[in-house]
């Protein structure tokens, strides 16, 4: 089925009943973590100790188990945590109760909630959100709601409701996940994380991408969020008519969102078509058709090299007979995927049979078997022409889990579209990650008392609410700035300095934009960190540039020196490097000397003499005189001569 994410036309997606919402997670830039006083630092692969854990589900307050927790428990994962003593303490390992919630994180979360026009809650109530995938050593994440009922403006006079702004702790960073062992680094664990949740009213994949972009830019505009790999994660929820909510987890880049959503919407449409066909064949919701067989044949009885190797290594082969489903396992979903991939995804995640291929079936050549093996397993299970045999291999317990998952997935297909969390693949398709969590995984955190949000705290936070970046962009376009500068400047921490200097007419908008955006970008590509320069230092630089006290030609070199020596003043650097404004007499002398030097060189090409003299004079006056003034002097010299 062809997928064109450019179909942003509302009518095209209304036919599918497309609805989508967002959950944007962004780390806050704080000194300490959320519920302890460990410092927030950049990711590090250095570790000093390892911790081994196994997770077990717990009941909710109503005596229910969360479906995701039960699924994770079936995986029987061995979870390894690699810990750096500089960034974790006994709190992260659940050996110590939480500290009082980080005040800096609360203040910044309040500003962000106000930026999204949210109503601020009267008290913060910390709750525990159960996670058994190993990403949090305690098995739960502490989270709280800061604001509700906000709104985000979108293009074309549209908007989306902000359901809530949450404040929670980040999870571990996954290193590897092979078989029954998963390994994490704990450096990212418990860093304060802001969560922005929208209503599921976004109408097209392109609109979802635009909303994601706007949320990210508004967060960046506050200056309160971290940047870099792993600092932001985007989860996209969607459903279509007659479907259920499916979440695409951790979309790494915004341009991929339309492709992923288009794939997922058409996948769900195909699953509904498969459900209709299953119903036509006589299946009903609640059915769990199929039969599991243990195959005890010899390795020389099969042609498949994978099955031969499994038997020779002592693995188990199980065959699942799926009645009256012939023709459905190869039914296309979207892109190049078919219905059989739905079974393979469950087997990979739940049974931990993650080596490809991890299953075969007897429905045609796409099943991975030749004619001989197909007949062999069909006869073994007693399949008729309407039945299909599906084969899995591996450790005995894992194949039993895999076989049960196959039967469960077919039962879910008879009901319709299962609630799932799916991972975004590099080819812009998705694959099963886990069962979608429900409300049964959340319960109050009795270790954390309520935290009152007083009015004075809200008013203090309101002072830091930024102007929306799209409104700033309109003003900057009116100033004649190019789009590359507008795009970055509208969310830059120094945009307020730009506004102030332009209002004071201390420097031209274009010159200020070039320095604050283009020049800083060039410096970062040269591995020079200008983040250690304060706003007042940038102000002194730009005002001096506007007055002509320093020259444009030396800016790159000057900032390279200043970024390495931020404790120095602008005057000290200029004096040390000899970048002192030249007097008119010095400029005239430098031009005269340069002109005399070029006489012999340009004897037969006098028309080239002014340009060469200009070059020579600027080299003599590097950083001490503006080019415009030097060129005027060169032109006078040419007239006189």
Q: Strand portion, in percent? A: 15-25%
Secondary-structure-based class equals alpha+beta
* Uncertain stretches of 5 or more adjacent residues: none
**For the terminal residues, how far apart are their CA atoms?**
77 Å
Number of domains: 4
Shape: elongated
Mean pLDDT, all residues: 89
Specify the biggest β-sheet: 11 strands, mixed
Given the structure, what is the number of helices?
Answer: 20
Q: How many β-strand stretches?
A: 21
- Our Rg estimate from Cα atoms comes to 32 Å
How much helical structure, as a percent, in the residues? 25-40%
Structure notes:
There is one protein chain. The protein is of the alpha+beta class. The protein has four domains: 10-245, no CATH class; 280-415, GAD-like domain (Gyrase A, domain 2, 2-Layer Sandwich), CATH 3.30.1360; 467-577, no CATH class; 584-640. 38% of the residues lie in helices and 19% in strands. The protein contains 20 helices and 21 strands. Helix 3 crosses helix 10 (455-462) and helix 14 packs across helix 16. The radius of gyration is 32 Å and the shape is elongated. The N and C termini lie far apart (77 Å). The mean pLDDT is 89.
